[in-house]
Amino acid sequence: MARVLAFGAHPDDVEFQCAGTLALLAQRGHEIHIAVMAGGEYGSASLSEYEIRRKRLAENAKSAKIIGARFHYAGGHDGEIQYDSWYRKITYRVLREVDPTIVFTHPPTDYMVDHEEMSRLVRNACFLAPVPNCDSQSAHETTSGVPHLYYWNAMGLVDIFGRPLPLTNVVDISSVMDVKEQMLACHESQREWLRHHHKMDAYIEEMRHNAQAQGQLVGRAAAEGFIQHLGHGYPTNDILAEMLGDLCIRLRE
Fold this sequence. Notes:
Layout: E1 3-8, H1 13-27, E2 31-38, H2 49-66, E3 70-76, H3 85-98, E4 102-105, H4 113-128, E5 148-152, E6 169-172, H5 177-185, H6 189-197, H7 203-216, E7 223-228, H8 239-244, E8 248-250
């Protein structure tokens, strides 16, 4: 069985964008890990950053348990994620601790910089975590090799210029939408926050809308879209399609 890592910038990013796919992989017996870089310290209008971090990390751990996943907090801070030496090293740590076969993370272009920097950090760690001389003082051994890397779709399903991303795969999550909803509902603190900051009182409804819109791309009720990283040095076989069979529809050959 494979080790699967979904590594997001903030608590609830993974649930919004790829929890259905993780649920399907968990059903097939794969080992699932969910990690976040930051503790969601900016996600409250009433609690201090330390109080909301404790709350949000607890919500994320609760969500992970629904599919039997292990939860990891990398140690970063909301709004401050950047592609520097310290953040690169704590990203290596998570990759080396999990030693994943397949990794999911944010796309290179998304609505906020934390997400875009997270995409760079994870991409870099996938490539360099197997290198012994990279962060050689790390407490964890190197990874077994460069894992398969997939970017989930952008929040709102478009890039910062309003364009759809060039998806390579769409996963039919119709059978596990209830699981995805349960996982996202664990993040109770964010309904209040989105009402305050985004003027949006439709936390679960927004997720359903995005899943339905992606499902329409392939004639399914609900789906999650992905882009496989196919650059030099990364595995190019479509392991996601191999793992999920007919539930993973390829959009490009």
